[in-house]
């Protein structure tokens, strides 16, 4: 996991510990096999919007999926015809 992603995940999991999902003995489909909630956002929607409105691709390793590359090539061919 790239460093930026690992740091962001730690920052996300920290406030999650105070939620009822992890602190109240809750057993639900939100929790994975390790008891981590990777589904819900523990903060306000405004905070989510503020934190995710910009993306710095230089902070991540981006890898194109082969089927996405093929599909984009097919789209380019169709547009040029």
Please outline the helices and strands:
Blueprint: H1 3-16, H2 20-23, H3 45-52, H4 66-80
Distance between the termini: 41 Å
Question: Average pLDDT value?
Answer: 79
* Helix percentage range: 40-55%
Query: Class by helix and strand content?
Result: mainly alpha
Secondary-structure element string: HHHH
For the biggest sheet, the summary is: none
Discrete helix count: 4
Low-confidence stretches at least 5 residues in length (pLDDT < 50)? none
Strand content: under 5%
Shape: elongated
Report the count of strand segments. Answer: 0
Instruction: Tally the structural domains.
Output: 1
Radius of gyration: 18 Å
Structure, described:
This protein is mainly alpha-helical. The protein has one domain (3-80). It contains 4 helices and no strands. The relative contact order is 0.11. The model has no long low-confidence stretch (mean pLDDT 79).
């Amino acid at each position: 996991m790239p460093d930026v992603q690992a740091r962001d995940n730690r920052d996300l999991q920290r406030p999650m510990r105070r939620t009822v999902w992890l602190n109240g003995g809750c057993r639900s489909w939100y929790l994975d096999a390790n008891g981590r909630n990777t589904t819900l956002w523990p903060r306000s929607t405004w905070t989510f919007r503020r934190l995710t409105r910009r993306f710095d691709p230089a902070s991540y390793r981006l890898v194109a999926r082969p089927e996405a590359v093929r599909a984009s090539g097919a789209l380019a061919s169709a547009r040029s015809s």
